[in-house]
Specification:
This protein is an alpha/beta fold. The chain has helices at 16-29, 83-94, 109-112, 118-127, 141-147, 162-166; strands at 4-10, 34-42, 50-55, 61-66, 75-76, 79-81, 101-107, 131-137, 157-160. The protein has a nine-stranded mixed beta sheet with strand order 5-6-4-3-2-7-8-1-9, sandwiched between helices. The longest helix has 14 residues, at 16-29. The radius of gyration is 15 Å and the shape is globular. The chain starts with a strand and ends with a helix. The relative contact order is 0.25.
């Protein structure tokens, strides 16, 4: 079971991933090993056209979602999700052994529909004994916490927002 879980939550485009990147830099500067995935967007705000899953340990990237029509069974809003990209991210999350910290950026609408990285997140919550950092969209927070069997106020669970981190 993850000994400590930090959840970064906020609305779409609120700075969740930027906050996460800052935390990763700080932890690496302290000598910690950080594994997992981070979502890298192409475009800004409503002009975003794609997301790449990035393996934090290796820097390897794979297309995760795009507004261009691709052959897939997984869609949400205007995005088509690459099944190959999701598989890449899932495999990345399965090979985080030895990392002091494991990151999942982000859990959102797909995971609410029991797609995406939900199974890997659940496995990490149950079995990983290090620090886990989860980025979860605000509108999905309660749903995903319920699916991961996490309780607000539980000692090992800390929920932060980009705004709360900026004030520190």
């Amino acid at each position: 079971m993850a000994s400590r879980i930090i959840i970064i939550t906020g609305k779409k485009d609120s700075g969740k991933t930027s906050t996460l990147k800052r935390i990763i830099r700080e932890q690496k500067s302290l000598g910690k090993t950080v594994g997992g995935i981070i979502s890298e967007a192409r475009g800004k705000g409503s002009d975003r056209v794609s997301y790449y899953a990035v393996d934090i340990l290796t820097g390897e990237k794979m297309l995760l979602a795009t507004t261009e029509k691709i052959e897939t069974n997984i869609t949400f809003g205007r995005f088509f999700f690459s099944e190959k990209g999701i598989k890449f991210a899932r495999n990345t999350l399965k090979k985080t052994e030895g990392s002091d910290i494991v990151v999942i950026d982000e859990l959102g609408p797909l995971e609410c529909m029991e797609e995406g990285f939900l199974d890997e997140a659940l496995d990490l919550v149950k079995q990983y004994d290090g620090e886990l950092i989860l980025v979860i969209r605000e509108e999905c927070l309660n749903n995903i916490m319920e699916k991961l069997k996490l309780v607000t106020g539980e000692d090992r669970v800390k929920i932060i927002t980009p705004d709360s981190v900026r004030k520190c």
